[in-house]
Amino acid sequence: MADLARRGFAPDARVHWLGEEGRLKFLADPFGVWRDGRLHLFAEAYDYRDRHGVIVRIELDANFAPISRTVVLREPWHLSYPQVFEAEGETWMLPEAYRSGALTLYRAAAFPDIWEPVARLALDTPAIDATPFRHDGLWWLAYSPTGSQRWKQGRLHLAFAERLTGPWRTHPGNPVRDDLASSRPGGTAWIENGMPCLPVQDCTRTYGGGVRKLAILRLDPERFEAEASAPLGLPPGVGSYSKGFHTLSACGPLTFFDVKRIDRTLWPRRGSS
């Protein structure tokens, strides 16, 4: 993924596409885990008819075709952005759930399908697209705040902790970045030249309109400096899905991503007949 974030997609890049979800539905925010030679994709599954996202797991075969699909996390509130990662001998999931008023860390009680909440991470705001990473002996979270659409799409906050479950301290510089082009997290972090890098969303034209690499130049509990790259080009073969490039996440030798198109349809208001 680091090479892709630096150079973009090659014209002859090997891209495997999942099938479309069908009318009024989409999959987004892909994250993956290899376990015992099996590839598990976790993603948000959204249905416009109930405006509610759940987290699904899709097992893929050696040719990246779906073998099975299961809803692994459903809550009364909307869920998305299921950051799944391994640390401290456990497998964790940190899905976005800002409409619940909190950010909840889940642990796999029986991977891959059974997840239990283990901690509510107390921050300065219910976090949007929270992205964990390690740096200089600390856990860090990069996330966007709730508030106006401009804040959700164009501000970056940070928090840090000695343990993944907390307690978490928010960075005194929050928001450490205020830029619609390069603030909202969009995938898994990686280390480059000893410093963290983040994929971030370019929301200048539309929400999730593109992805940039945000290279962190200085990071400690008092300071933050970063530099954003130019937006990455779209992968080959996007077809009608050319209106956005939203997530970039690493899974061993693979990189997951999503792209978007915009469809418009007449839809009655809620409560109307």
Automatic annotation (TrEMBL):
The keyword ATP-binding does not apply. The keyword Transferase applies. Pfam families: GINT1_N (PF24793). Coiled coil: none annotated. GO terms for molecular function: transferase activity. Keywords: Transferase. It comes from the Bacteria. Gene3D superfamilies: Glycosyl hydrolase domain, family 43. Residues 25-228 form the Glucosamine inositolphosphorylceramide transferase 1 N-terminal domain. This is Formyl transferase. The lineage of its organism: Bacteria, Pseudomonadati, Pseudomonadota, Alphaproteobacteria, Caulobacterales.
